[in-house]
């Protein structure tokens, strides 16, 4: 008997090993095994047992690690699909589905120290609105009939999408089925956990990257044993080892954080759809600002469309005022950070003992340090990017590789003292707010402020209790959070995401503005939103101010169609990186030539090599080759053909990203 085994390495498999007599009865698909590989002893994942093979000189498996399989049949199939679609090895995809403990060959861990849980007030199902009731009826029908369908739930902010999720999960629970709920940000997880535990108590397990390894392994075991039948978590929770899957919810389905940035570079939303298909389960993709791809799929009939057009309890959407920052200078004729209307609105909120959110999608104090005499900008010595000044640590920091240095007093290039900080980050906004409103209780929520475990919950609890009056933050606070006391949202700069050289920049800006606007007026008081911008006429801003998603979609989809961009095509990006720019360019050129030579009518274009948007990152120069095709499979198949016999320099690394964001 033989075992076909995959390894967590970027190498095509499976590899065949002989099963010694003593292991034949113990081996089965889904179990881990210790196997020889070259001179190394590695963990392999058994994907199949066969009784004959054409492979010669077969080595024996050393031992079987598990008594019971750690991977179900549907997870093995999902991982296989990921390997084929996202151009990675089957073993890499398998390892994405497992907690770190199992990838190290362990089977047990000391139970985590139990932390005292806050009391959560239980909640009951709310009577559904007419629109919610209509949506639930069709979803319930498919859950009962074990019928796979993908629903796009497009609901304005505050329309009660979460209540639809909760009542759909209750139906799955009644039918003895399990559910997975994906939320995009760690910052949303505490509030999401609270909502689901309030409704379903001990049925809920949690999976996300801020858990310790012991906590993660403990939750994984609770799910695998069937003790927990509802899983709430970030991207990797899509691989939760549930049995009898009935429903997967992807909340804020448009979010970029669902896309994994290193191999395997999967998109959790698309993996959710595939896994649900393999299990005859229902998928609900929820968003106030769906990705263009999902909305296009709903329009063309690939997904079923559900629409929530009104806020619950007939609350109106907040009024949005766009402020043209070209008209606002401070006393020294420099650009003001906060316009007079925004300052007055904040003062009014504080006077009324209400709460406000100030949003800026840049962290740090100043976004760059610049010499006004010679124009020199201080950049990271490892990356082609300016360093950001952080006031609290007193350091210049690279947000890409983490490099830090003390800010110089004189210009390193011309030795003048005309060197100063420019640009605005969340730290600077927090400082300015504290200066203007001395008695206000201000807090900040960004990656720097939430680096410690439990800090997300602490900051949100302070805001929820009303202790924090003004919350300054990045996109962490832009979506999913529900605080009835918030009556004002101020967008400090709507332009920070608009002028990035990326075809999705308009979509991102519209989405962020709409989402952050939706945090206002969720209680009994009507909300107000002030958006500061230098480009008030841009359609992403004007349509976000009207909460007009359909108008934005119609405008944006025309541009995408004209340029054959997603959803009218699939893109595959192949990045070559090396400490030598010439070597990376040479390998990229060679592959681009082979792709051009072998391309057929299914491929729209082969572009490049072109310098990556981030031309140097972590000491490596980067060059891209871009494939554009009607179907991702056509582009991946072309790439496989072109790589046959292709040789690159040993110092050059290659990464493939299918459907990059």
Regarding quaternary structure, what we see is single chain
What is the highest CATH level, the class of the largest domain?
Answer: Alpha Beta
Per DSSP, what share of the residues sits in E-state strands of 2 or more residues?
15-25%
Structural class: alpha/beta
Report on the architecture of this protein:
- The strands form six sheets. Strands 8-9-7-10-11-6-12 form a seven-stranded parallel sheet, with helices on both faces.
- It has five domains: 2-103, GIY-YIG endonuclease (3-Layer(aba) Sandwich); 130-312, Rossmann fold (3-Layer(aba) Sandwich); 315-363 and 426-559, Rossmann fold, CATH 3.40.50.300; 368-422, no CATH class; 570-658, Alpha-Beta Plaits, CATH 3.30.70.600.
- Helix 1 crosses helix 8, helix 13 (505-517) runs parallel beside helix 14 and helix 16 (581-598) packs across helix 17.
- 29% of the residues lie in helices and 23% in strands.
- Helix 8 links the parallel strand 10 and strand 11 (282-287).
- It is globular and about 80 Å long.
- The protein has 661 residues and is of the alpha/beta class.
